[in-house]
Amino acid sequence: MSAPQEPRAGQQPQQQQQQRPISAQGSVASSEITLTRWQKIENVIWDGGHRTPQERALVRRLDIFIMSWATIGYFVRLLDWANVTNAYVSGMKEDLHFTGADYNLLSTFFIIGYVIGQVPSQMVLTRVRPSYWLPTCELLWSIVTFCFAAVQNVRDVFALRIVMGFLEAPFAVGVLTIMGSWYTPRELSKRIAIFYSACYAASMFSGYLQAGIYNGMNDHLGIAGWRWLFIFCGVISLPFSLYGYIAIPDNPYNSKAFWMPPHQLEFARKRMEACDRRPPVLLTWAKMRRIVTHWPLYAFTAIMICQCLVTQPLNYFAVWLKSLNRFSVYQVNVIPTAGQAVGLLTTLAYSWLADAWGGEKRWKALLIPAVVNLVGLIIVSIGPGFGATLFGYLLNGASWGFWPICFAWTNEVCASDPEERAIVIGVAQTMGQAFVAWVPILILNTAKYAPKFTMGWSILTGFSACQLAMVFVIRWLVQRDKQRAREQQQEGGFNGHHDRGNDVEGGVAAHGNVEENTAEDSENVVPTAPEMTKL
């Protein structure tokens, strides 16, 4: 009998690989791996030390394709959002004769299109692969961006903002759903943070870009500098919209991405099963009824409405600076980038801390940006002086890190139900933006309340306090459901695979009564590689 062959360098013996358990965090159990000092450091910085070579290779592929597409795509979208503000203070207001509350309506019409587009987009995604639908919307979005350079009046701007909002509606929810379908709880928060950090990078870049264009290209070829800004944005966005057709992998149960080998796709499914993330099922009325009667839909929607409102001050930073009549157009474009820089750094710091704490302690990381924002809003509400007010606006930038941690928490709480996870994220995002469509018009009207916006910031201070309270409410609800889950387990009401819910914040435990899962859901499980309707 011949001796067994030794494994090649860098490979684990096949039997040994099969025996290594996958933890509830979705990675090979850390107790099975002896970490070097560097791997321990890497485990903190980039969650890498606890993984096998096979898992490292899988996550590396996901990062290369999903993160590059998502981050660059979000950067381009937020670049447009920031461009509107920069264009407004760089000549668009005067050239197109904006009056009264027209500045507020720029956001309102965009959000109207955004809210209108959410439901149709989600319906389309139940029949069409994200890898088809999302890049197509991006491509049309790029074309509309070019059209902004040709607007002749305020009505043209408002019409294009509605179309822009409609086309952008699928993107953020689609990205968060895709990330939640591939990454484990240990990996998710920091990657959502990187995704959202593109927001600050875009706002900073837009300020520098507009300042440079205004100085170097204003009236070049007879075109105003603010129009050149939209032309440059369109040139940047067009190629990356095409990249989405190859970068988006759909989900582990139906992916046809050319860059995902079959053996890694199978391993990706096992990772998700270890996190209690099940295959998607066709949405039925019974499933929908359970979702709308379960608390996460309402709790996370409420906290997201608060978050979308309390981050508004940073959008009015440039308006406040311009109203002081002490800064040039160049300075008005550049100074607010300090708030974006603060937001970028603190968002990454909060999310790394959240992933380092993980599970039971992740919710505590939400308290930091919530408290920081509350302090900042109190300062800008009082308006004690230029220096203090400037500091208050910068603190508002430091509060934007609440978003990625909250969405990571949502993914964990709804981990065992992909349909609920998608609907909760979609509804929370939509309702948050819906409130931004009308609340600023009432309390942040630039014609009535600029530059201090005392009443508006005072009202938002109340929303900030409610947001802080909601963190504790959701934490209590999660713990209550986990306690119920443990009691049901002791009574024999759980199936064997549900006991991992105790290891992760949320999961099946947070889902409450798991006995509600019916045979109807089992019959509607989406096949491993379904033939989906094509565009």
TrEMBL record:
Sequence ranges of Low complexity compositional bias: 1-27
Region of interest (Disordered), residue spans: 1-28, 487-535
Residue intervals of the Major facilitator superfamily (MFS) profile domain: 66-482
Localization per record: Membrane
Transmembrane parts of this sequence: 64-83, 103-120, 132-152, 158-180, 192-214, 226-248, 295-314, 334-353, 365-384, 390-410, 422-443, 455-478
Signal peptide: none
Main location: membrane
Keywords carried by this UniProt record: Membrane, Transmembrane, Transmembrane helix, Transport
Gene Ontology CC, one term: membrane
GO molecular function, one term: transmembrane transporter activity
InterPro entries hit by this protein: MFS, MFS_dom, MFS_trans_sf
Pfam families membership: MFS_1
Topology within the bilayer: Multi-pass membrane protein
Family: Belongs to the major facilitator superfamily. Allantoate permease family.
Record's protein name: Major facilitator superfamily (MFS) profile domain-containing protein
Organism of origin: Talaromyces amestolkiae
Lineage: Eukaryota, Fungi, Dikarya, Ascomycota, Pezizomycotina
